[in-house]
Amino acid sequence: MRLPPGELSEHEELVLKEAGVDGTVGWRWLIGPATALGQGQLTAMARSCSRTVSQTQTLEFCRHRRFTLQDHDKGAQVDPGVEFVVALAGNPPTAYQWEIVSALNPVVLELLGEECVPERENCIGCGGTFFFRFRAVGPGDADLRFVYRRPWEGKPVKEFQVRVHVLRSPGGDWSLGHGGWAG
Using CA atoms in the order 63, 65, 68, 70, what is the torsion angle rounded to 10 degrees? Predict the structure, then answer.
C-alpha cells in the first residue's frame, strides 16, 4: 500500500499470504491517525504456476470523527451526512463484548454496521477493538450509550456514552446555548 505522501506502508499485516482451498485470501489493518490525508494506492498481486496478475485501486484517506473511551461523557457536533465511528477496546475471547443499549432515532442517526477487529490475526486470547459505524442523518441530538458485558450477565463492567448533536445544515448550529457540550 502506498500512502498519500508516496511512501510504502510497513504495517505488519501487509504480508504475503496463501489463498485457502476456496481460493480467497484477506488482509485487515487499521489506518492510524497520523496518516496523511489525500490519495494513496493499494496494489494486490496474485501468482499461480503460470502467471502473475496485478490490480491497483486508488484509496482516498480522509479524516472521520472517531470516539473512544477517552470521549466518555463528552459531546460533539457533526454535520448531516457525516459518518463517524465509535471504537471501543475489548477482549472478545473472554466473551465480553460492547453493545449499544440506547435506542436510535433514525431521523438523527443511522447505524451503518458493527464489527470486532482483533489486535492481531490468529492470536488466541488477544484483545481487539469493537467498531460501531454511524451516519448523521438529520438535525437533532442522540445520546449513544454502550455497555461492556458478557451476554448472559446483566450488570456491565464498563459503560461508555457520548452525546452527538447533528447540525441543521453543514457548518451551522441550530441550538446555540444547549448545555453540556464538550467539544
Answer: 100
